[in-house]
Design a protein that fits this description.
The protein is an alpha/beta fold and about 575 residues long. It is built from 23 helices and 17 strands. It has four domains: about 150 residues, DNA polymerase beta, N-terminal domain-like (DNA polymerase, domain 1, Orthogonal Bundle); about 90 residues, Beta Polymerase, domain 2 (2-Layer Sandwich); about 70 residues, Beta Polymerase, domain 3, CATH 3.30.210; about 240 residues, TIM Barrel (Alpha-Beta Barrel), CATH 3.20.20.140.
């Protein structure tokens, strides 16, 4: 594939990591990290500008780094990067994916024992020598071993957000081919699953050989795994497998439906077809032997469902969790859409660990057409995230009030805080300061190892607090990196239903928390969802897309998601919550 801004940012981040391992100047390391952030969030075509050597004056990219990016864009190589990586195998970057390991610990392990891969890390942990290093100890090593086991158990699995750009680029190129009539991504990606194992594509064409040839020889291919007349499997340079099915236009709706899945949904759909006298597979719908009934015409997926006496079922719902029964009874929900969102709340700025200023975040929200944006920087106990103390938070509240006075289009910033739920269930700020805020996001950021009962009681105490508006990332999971902590989610849902506390659907692709499997229950209990991107930079506001996908998988409608409310209604709801009335 052509070089992208993501490629640029990845090279810059890896340079920073290797410089840290070599013990280089912290300011030099920070310069590369800042440049990576700038590359990712720059609004223009940063790759084209680098190729044309026009990066001068871009804040966050100094003259030396600009020259290196020009070299990378123009030649596909960066001499500085190539020389730097000679001292380290690529396997060393695996270590940064292990929970419990940071650059300082990796450097210590590398310097002491030559640890440059997960395999070598396992050896030094098992032998006991790692525990003797300063700053480690048996408990620290035990967490590292747990992190290794978790990573290995999820090998070959990808976060939805990590593959979305790849899938979109491949699909765009397939659709652009002159032999393509129709094309769509399928599989768990199309269903919006939080993690996927591969990417599937279905193409309708009269010339399958041309499409297969194009797919197998495209720039994105690192390896051809299998190839036939109408199908092909490849592996991308990033490591993920992609599978293509090239079918006739008549078979396309059946193939797309079959390869979208889920397996359980397909089994239930085929069983329904049999009861109606048809055999259903990826090629078509045919009468059973001896049944002379006419076959309904099927041009689109929706026609297939209607032929079986069902309303069309959105791909997000195809998990065999009651969608076929609901479709048969005309009771499928009208699912929430991205265009329904009017604002969002859980967002950070440079005041804590964000990368963009308050003003920049607000402008980005306005550019997206949002009516309101909530700012919820970390509270003081999250020292690792530069959490705000009382004075800094009050200063931010004042700045938000000032900015609100400058908007003439009705846009509004709500002043909030992501307040730590402390180990004993109390909140990080007193009630007086919480009362000065427009809303409060209550989140757990430490002591993840508590027993389930203790963690549940900790969170329930926050739910009962009259100043808490919503719970942030309820289970604390980081997909493919950290398991959710032990908590009784059903008890928390019941408490939120009773107190009117909202539950966040954290749209960051690393979290997607609360998991979609719980939202149908929460909805039925009357709990409101709030879709938040947990944005730490302007570009992260785009995470709302992933949050909406998960909400749709959870059967949520527009009326179930509070940030679909207009600005005026939202102001009333927040004021009601703060005054102790039911939302």
């Amino acid at each position: 594939m052509a070089m992208t801004r993501e490629d640029f940012a990845e090279v810059l981040r890896r340079i920073a990591l290797l410089l840290e391992l070599k013990g280089e100047n912290p300011f030099k390391i920070r310069a590369y990290r800042n440049a990576a952030e700038t590359v990712e969030t720059f609004s223009g075509d940063i790759v084209a500008m680098a190729r044309e050597n026009r990066l001068e004056g871009i804040k966050g990219i100094g003259e030396a780094i600009a020259g290196k990016l020009h070299e990378l864009a123009a030649t596909g190589r960066m001499e500085f990067w190539e020389k730097l990586r000679v001292d380290f195998p690529d396997s060393i970057f695996e270590l940064f994916e292990i929970t419990g390991l940071g650059p300082k610990k990796i450097k210590a392990l590398h310097d002491a024992f030559g640890v440059d891969s997960v395999a070598r890390l396992k050896e030094v942990c098992a032998s006991g020598v790692a525990a003797a290093l300063p700053g480690f100890g048996e408990k620290s090593v035990a967490k590292i071993v747990e992190g290794i086991a978790y990573r290995e158990s999820h090998a070959g699995v990808w976060r939805l957000g990590d593959v979305a750009a790849m899938a979109a680029e491949i699909l765009e190129m397939l659709r652009a081919h002159p032999a393509t009539s129709r094309a769509e991504a399928a599989g768990s990606f199309r269903r919006g699953k939080e993690t996927v194992r591969d990417l599937d594509f279905v193409v309708a064409t009269k010339h399958p050989g041309e499409i297969v040839e194009y797919f197998a020889t495209a720039p994105w291919v690192a390896e051809v795994l299998a190839r036939g007349e109408t199908k092909c499997s490849i592996r991308l340079e990033e490591g993920i497998q992609c599978d293509l099915r090239a079918v006739s236009n008549a078979s396309y709706p059946f193939a797309l439906n079959y390869f979208t899945g889920s397996k359980e949904h397909n089994v239930a759909l085929r069983a329904r077809a049999l009861k109606r006298g048809y055999s259903l597979n990826e090629y078509g719908l045919t009468p059973l032997e001896g049944d002379g009934g006419a076959v309904p015409e099927v041009f689109e997926e929706g026609d297939l469902y209607r032929a079986l006496g069902l309303d069309a079922i959105d791909p997000a719902l195809r998990e065999n969790t009651g969608e076929i029964e609901a479709a048969g009874e005309g009771e499928l929900p009208v699912l929430v859409e991205l265009a329904n969102l009017r604002g969002t709340f859980h967002n950070h700025t440079t005041a804590s660990d964000g990368r963009d200023s308050l003003e920049a975040m607000a402008e980005a929200a306005r550019d997206l057409g949002l009516q309101y944006l909530g700012i919820a920087d970390h509270s003081k106990s999250s020292f690792q995230a530069n959490g705000l103390d009382e004075d800094r938070l009050r200063a931010q509240i004042a700045e938000i009030r000032r900015l609100n006075g400058t908007y003439e289009d009705g846009f509004r910033i709500f002043a909030g805080s992501e307040v730590d739920i402390l180990r004993d269930g109390s909140l990080d700020f007193d009630d007086a300061l919480l009362g000065e805020l427009d809303y409060v996001v209550a989140s757990v950021h430490n002591a993840f190892q508590l027993p389930e009962e203790e963690m549940t009681e900790r969170i329930l105490q926050a739910v009962e607090h009259p100043r808490v508006t919503m719970l942030g990332h309820l289970t604390g999971r980081l997909l493919l990196q950290r398991e959710a902590y032990a908590v009784n989610i059903e008890r928390v849902i019941e408490a939120c239903a009773r107190t009117g506390t909202w539950i966040e659907l954290n749209a960051n692709p690393w979290r997607l928390d609360l998991d979609w499997r719980w939202w149908k229950l929460a909805r039925d209990r009357g709990v409101k969802c709030v879709i938040n991107p947990d944005a730490h930079r302007r570009a992260d506001l785009q995470f709302l897309h992933f949050g909406v996908l998960q909400a749709r998988k959870g059967w949520l409608r527009r009326e179930d998601v509070v940030n679909c409310l207009s600005l005026e209604t939202m102001r009333e709801r927040l004021a009601a919550k703060h005054s102790g009335r039911t939302l």
